[in-house]
Amino acid sequence: MSKKLKLGVFGLGSVGQGFYELLDQSKNPNLEIKKIVIKNPTKTRTIESSIFSTTPTDILDDPEIDIVVELIDDATIALEILKQSLQRRKPVVTANKKMLAGNLEEIYWLQKKYETPVLYEGAVCGSIPIIRNLEMHYAYDRLESFEGIFNGSTNYILTKMIDEKINYDKALDQAQKLGFAESDPTLDVKGYDAKYKLAITIAHSFGCFVKPDHMLNIGIDKISAHDIRYAKRQGCAIKLIAKAEKIGNKIFGIVAPTLVPLENPLASVKNEFNAINLVGASTGLQMLTGKGAGSLPTGLVVLADVASLLAEFKYSYPKVIPGNPVTFEKDALINVHVSFVTPGAIHPTDFEEFTGGYQGEDAHFMTGWMRIKKLEEWVDRDDLSIMVNDDTHFKVYEPKKEREFSLA
Amino acid sequence: MSKKLKLGVFGLGSVGQGFYELLDQSKNPNLEIKKIVIKNPTKTRTIESSIFSTTPTDILDDPEIDIVVELIDDATIALEILKQSLQRRKPVVTANKKMLAGNLEEIYWLQKKYETPVLYEGAVCGSIPIIRNLEMHYAYDRLESFEGIFNGSTNYILTKMIDEKINYDKALDQAQKLGFAESDPTLDVKGYDAKYKLAITIAHSFGCFVKPDHMLNIGIDKISAHDIRYAKRQGCAIKLIAKAEKIGNKIFGIVAPTLVPLENPLASVKNEFNAINLVGASTGLQMLTGKGAGSLPTGLVVLADVASLLAEFKYSYPKVIPGNPVTFEKDALINVHVSFVTPGAIHPTDFEEFTGGYQGEDAHFMTGWMRIKKLEEWVDRDDLSIMVNDDTHFKVYEPKKEREFSLA
């Protein structure tokens, strides 16, 4: 594809504008935007109006357009755009994590069927080139686990709440004003956005496809001033952590507020920054840190993907191999800290292994190993705040054996 | 190149063995080592002897061998192997930083001339995919500066000296036993190894080729117990830092022991780990951390390079563009801390801007802005220990104007 490429762009939100601006600045003679399809033609824009259209087929059916850059919000429409583009053999660059995470296995097969690539570095961890590194650098390493801060908006909110003692609502408001938050903030604060990215990263790390619905996500919206004080006393930060681990042929994964000891470099990753710690059998620990949100950082990654198509780069999904026995397992034991106000809200018997508890004047907590299946029942309870202890791993859940009858 | 590739390997030291082992484990049906050329045929080895040879042409002149993997120590012979391989249109994977740094501009042109790629991720920062990221991720960002820990051996030694109060000689001995150190340890401890990597990284970051001889390197071998105490009191770590900065169209760069404030995440990078902080106009700050030395971490990167050739990846040197006005400038002002034992060893007038000094019972120091040209004269003085202050930037050196004659 070493020729001049014409691009059709869907959507001109925060990332789209960053992408447009950077492409314009780059003065790359081989890349030109021919058409931008937008939803709302009445918005005032600084770009000359002839480039805009509200009709998707102006891009899809234009044989002159070589590449589709999909940067809209709606996952259902984004999937339709992706499919129609691939059918027309137009490579796609997208940053739509919800669409990707929900349909990644199908998208994998569609790329094979139409021999047309889809690149989506911008969908995971903003400016951090994590997918590219998993593709090219980790192809031959056996990844054991990864954990990371995958959502810039919640990391910004937690930083403000903890370091600057700003309350949750005000911090969320700031994140939205700075353009870090998703248009629907519940996607951020409830951990869905991080979970979409987790699902995509699991596919590239371990070669198994998992639907986001099949993973537990716990949000940051229940974190209390009590939790923050507790974390500080324990020498921990509170971070919304997405993590996955391989035990045998099973992959376990979760998104949850997590007590991260200050010695873990993830504890020092602040504001809109994202980071990922990867543990490989040969490389050992690697960490990548960078801005996880924002118009220019994400726009640059989209531009890098477009430029990679110029160099005929495509994902090879090195871990997705025939007969791969690796599967995702939802249930597991995980070590959690649960705080609550009303005495008796939870009981030691709720834990598979109860470690300890504290009953104070204003707040109580219990810690121990719990089944993810059990935690799922608690996620929507407003009276509980659940945090994972970061210095623990997943444990495979094995039902307790019935005690054998014995006369002795 | 999507076919079965036969490899010819030069050298079977620490990295070569890691590479061999990982390739063997990978059971990749498309990659096979046909021949390994070694210097010493009498060494006992676990690999079957028929694969070995001591004759370079057994690889170079074998038309069946598609790729040359060069992992020997000697830079002069390595360059000869590289040239002869390219002449025969055999792509080369190498980890020889000394050879690369000293000849990178020529190697750039040879790749063009013979239309045959050279990949060398293993030459810079061990397991960290820094070159690949500069190539593909930062191609469209304007890099402003980078700084990093580029040498695992010295970082290991400094960690042992500072955290465990082990003396320099014993720490060096440990690093050598663990296989982190170069066969000639002066390359590590005097900062040459880090400087070779700096030169390579500058080419990929800023598009200008600089010979290592044209940059100043200060080693860690003069660091005293007094310096370590001083750093601790200042809330700093001491790290051997390689850094480069773009000011206008000039690139400045140096390798030196550096007082790194504990807030800078580089301060927490310990033992054989390497790290790099990159500052780009659009991406902002990014950091990559990983093992900088060791048989398997570096062997894996070499394997990733070989696999990338299978996918027809080659470096595009995106910043090396016709008419690029960027050039390296050796001289600059840099903020340093110089400690010494003998009173009067140096004078405030040695500094362009003298900031302050301390005269104690057992040790003295002075800080201020100095010309790199002047520091060069001090590098080999055994009575001076020189450290850069990390929270400062380079300053362009401008000769002081002669005071104009005035009657007023």
Q: Descriptors for this entry?
A:
2 domains, eleven-stranded mixed sheet, alpha/beta, 12 helices, homodimer, Rossmann fold, 408 residues, Dihydrodipicolinate Reductase, domain 2, globular
Structure description:
Two copies of one chain form a homodimer. The first copy, chain A, has 408 residues and is of the alpha/beta class. Chain A folds into two domains: 5-119, NAD(P)-binding Rossmann-like Domain (Rossmann fold, 3-Layer(aba) Sandwich); 164-290 and 327-389, Dihydrodipicolinate Reductase, domain 2. Helices cover 32% and strands 25% of the residues of chain A. Chain A has twelve helices and 17 strands. Chain A has helices spanning 14-26, 57-60, 75-87, 97-114, 130-136, 152-163, 168-177, 185-189, 192-206, 225-233, 295-310, 372-378; strands at 5-10, 31-37, 52-53, 67-70, 92-94, 118-119, 143-149, 216-217, 236-247, 250-261, 273-280, 284-291, 327-328, 333-340, 353-359, 364-371, 384-389. In chain A, strands 7, 8, 9, 10, 11, 12, 13, 14, 15, 16 and 17 form an eleven-stranded mixed sheet that branches. In chain A, strands 3-2-1-4-5-6 form a six-stranded parallel sheet, with helices on both faces. In chain A, α1 (14-26) crosses α11 (295-310), α3 packs parallel to α4 (97-114) and α4 runs parallel beside α9 (192-206). Chain A is globular. β12 of chain A pairs antiparallel with β12 (284-291) of chain B.
